């Protein structure tokens, strides 16, 4: 019987990335997790619009024009708020001798670089890096897996 594994793959990949970056996975029914996935899915759809593509080339001009590109920016800010919230929680519960995940390792490096004014290890950089890992990894990996399943279905003899 035909089925679309898209949602399952996105949830599974997102949870794997969450466990590496945030040190925890989410229940598939968790409201925050579902909201996060919905924001990512919406951005994937909106990124194909002409307005969003023009925004990549003319951001200053497009800031003043209406269009779906504003929704993409809002969604990214919401995901960023989610990430910053987790980072703040990690800062409160950090045990430098026992890093739980990517965030803890980054926070440890921030502490080592504390006296360096030119250090790139800041909370803002951590937030952006975690956001990049989450946004880029979820979409590309789940789509790659989806195409892999499609190829396996087309050529079952292989």
UniProtKB/TrEMBL annotation:
Query: Hey, which family's this protein in?
Result: Belongs to the cytochrome P450 family.
Report the locations given in the UniProt record: Endoplasmic reticulum membrane; Microsome membrane
Names of the cofactor(s): heme
- Keyword S-adenosyl-L-methionine present in the record's keywords: the answer is no
GO terms for MF: arachidonate epoxygenase activity; heme binding; iron ion binding; oxidoreductase activity, acting on paired donors, with incorporation or reduction of molecular oxygen, reduced flavin or flavoprotein as one donor, and incorporation of one atom of oxygen
Q: Could you list this entry's UniProt keywords, alphabetically sorted.
A: Endoplasmic reticulum, Heme, Iron, Membrane, Metal-binding, Microsome, Monooxygenase, Oxidoreductase
Q: What is its EC number?
A: 1.14.14.1
* Broad class of the protein's primary localization: endoplasmic reticulum
Name of the molecule in the record: unspecific monooxygenase
Q: Which SUPFAM superfamilies match?
A: Cytochrome P450 (SSF48264)
Gene that this sequence comes from: Cyp2h1_1
